Amino acid sequence: MQSLWKIEMIQLEMKLLLKIKQFAAEKMVLSVFFVLFASVAVAQERVMLIADPHILASSLVEQGAAMDEMMAGQRKMLDMSEEVFVALIDTALAHKPALVLIPGDLTKDGEMASHNVVVEQLERLQAAGINVLIIPGNHDIGGKAYAYQGSEKVAVDVLADTEWESQYAMVYEQAIAKDPNSHSYVAEPLRGVTVLGIDASHNDGEGYLSNETLAWVLQQADDARAKGNMVLAMCHWQVLEHVDGGGLDADVTARLQNADAVRDQLMAHGVRMLFTGHVHVNSISTYRDTLQMSSDSIMEISTGSPITYPCPYRWLTMSQDRSTIVVETDYLTALTDYTDLTAYSREWMREHAKVMIPALSVRLFDQAMGVIEDYIVKNVPMGSMIFQMLKMSLPQTDAEKTKMVEKHIGSTIIELYLLHSEANEPECAYADSLAQALYDGVGNMMHELTDATLQKYGSIQQAMIDMVNETMQPSVQSLVEDRTHWASPYSDLTDDLSGAWVINEPMTYTPVEDVTDSEEGGTIYDLLGRRVAETHYRGVYIQNGKKFIK
User: Distance between CA 325 and CA 47 in Å, rounded?
Assistant: First the structure.
């Protein structure tokens, strides 16, 4: 009850703050606003969250056939990735968050030139006193990468695994501990806040957390909790399910290969909030330890890529006592040559999301054929023979399967994907009608495929079609209802875009005393509560609960 009351009070404060800001702007009474609401402003500390910027350095691109061919197979607006990232850095500089978090896939494919662009932009934040923490994704280290020069695709240097930490020294210099087996680290970028940077990128492009690294992460979580810190984890791959059965994207292995084990261990060790990316969709999912009948839970905040519709990023607002986080979603809405980036990116995605259909078609056909075979063999006289006849008349190649899927449900799949990208699917008035259109389309496709062989078995044919749709139903309904573990006792619905959550016990701090003129032994913090390795710049710092002047 106390947690619920606290969330309601925080939400009320946010609404009051917004109303007062609007009133102040209209009536020019800013001085009154700051006096009345200073306590609210002081109690908040903001963090900017950017996922999967996928920067392709503009220096690697000379427009031509090679670039056109690459872009034709993409759902990411890679041609404007550098411009988008610069715009996000500009946004951060304008709003001055205390911290920026990026959970992986900083580059298209690990190009050294692209990593250099990332560092150049992050140094702008650092120069302005804004801290940054990152973690690698599956597109950041090693592999093959190219420059696109007219009609030619030319191999370029990539960042090696051994170069990662030196490339991003500004991050790893903040680490209070580093995992010897990966690029995982732990930092305390803000007073009373521990960030676990979890590197799971060492398994041939698929996410996996080794037992050794997991044990290290859990120990760091225990140490942070013992100090009373708010513990936040950051990993590129997802740990929780966001759509039952993987949803529409057949090309992506979104979750860690050992996701369930990692989820349970993080939850058992007091990690309540995890930031991820990888799937380029805004989604927040909550898992509760209902099977163990405990009160433990973990929330995963997956953030979409800013170079895919609707070009999102997030703001996290932490209470001063480090008990509560408020999450808000924001969007990049314009660039120099795109006054309505939202509309442009939506139409761009509608056209380019078609690239996901071939892999999805193969998956759908494989699932359907399993259901059809099982049903015919069990319910139709001479079922095995009839199934073999049916099988011979069905699409044989991946291209034929894709053509059939595109004909009957291709447009519906694209609209469902756009809906999923927008998040909070139940708020869409036509979400249920899209689901029904998918079921109807599958039925029509099945009739076309089976009428010649099964039409004389009308009732059995319809029952088989119903069974194929029932096989799809958990994933489809999970998506349109935004509900994980659909139709189960453990079903969960969490707002994908905003909310306030209590994730830590309130902390107390010793008041800072008057300014002194000398440094003493002990950890040094700046006035935002961030640990400082050395006082390079003039200013006021905190050490042993006292301010001192550099």
Answer: 10
Amino acid at 250: A
Query: Reduced to 3 states, what is the DSSP secondary structure of residue 68?
Result: helix
Instruction: For the chain, give the percent of residues with pLDDT over 90.
Output: 64
Cβ burial of 459 (10 Å; 0-12, 13-18, 19+) is exposed
Average pLDDT for residues 104-132, to the nearest whole number?
97
Phi first, then psi: give them for residue 147, nearest 5 degrees: -100, 150
pLDDT band per the 50, 70, 90 thresholds, residue 537: low
Q: What is the pTM of this model?
A: 0.85
Rg (Cα) of the chain, in Å, rounded?
26
Write the DSSP symbol of residue 111: B
Tokens of 387: 């199934």
Q: Name the β-bridge partners of 193.
A: 190, 230
**What is the tens place of the pLDDT at every residue in 437-493?**
999 999 999 888 888 877 777 787 888 889 888 988 999 999 999 999 898 888 889
Sign of CA dihedral 332, 333, 339, 344: positive
As a whole number, mean pLDDT of residues 172-198 equals: 96
Whole-Å CA distances, 324 to 12, 120, 267, 302, 440: 14, 33, 17, 18, 45
Tell which residue, 232, 161, 144, has the closest CA to residue 195: 232
386 CB burial (10 A radius; 0-12, 13-18, 19+)? middle
Residue 452 tokens read as 């010649």
3-state secondary structure of 115: helix
Confidence band, pLDDT 50/70/90 cuts, at residue 206: confident
3-state secondary structure of 101: strand
Q: What is the DSSP string of 242-280?
A: SSGGGTT-TT---B-TTHHHHHHHHHHTT--EEEE-SS-
Q: What's the chain's average pLDDT?
A: 86
Close Cβ partners of 27 (under 8 Å, ≥ 6 residues apart): none
Task: Tell me which DSSP letter residue 77 carries.
Answer: -
DSSP E strands: which ranges in 13-158? 44-49, 61-62, 99-102, 131-134, 146-149, 152-155
53 closest CA partner among 332, 347, 357: 332
Q: How far is CA 328 from CA 49, 67, 273, in A?
A: 10, 35, 15
Start-to-end C-alpha separation, the chain? 46
- Collect all residues with Cβ–Cβ distance below 8 Å to 397 and sequence separation of at least 6: none
Cα 150 from Cα 172, distance rounded (Å): 38
Statement: residue 218 has pLDDT above 90: yes
Between CA 178 and CA 161 the distance in angstroms is: 15
Give dist(CA 79, CA 108) in Å, integer: 11
Residue 306 — pLDDT band, cuts 50, 70, 90?
A: very high
The candidate with the shortest Cα–Cα distance to 52, out of 237, 284, 240, 239, is 237
| pLDDT at residue 521 greater than cutoff 80 | no
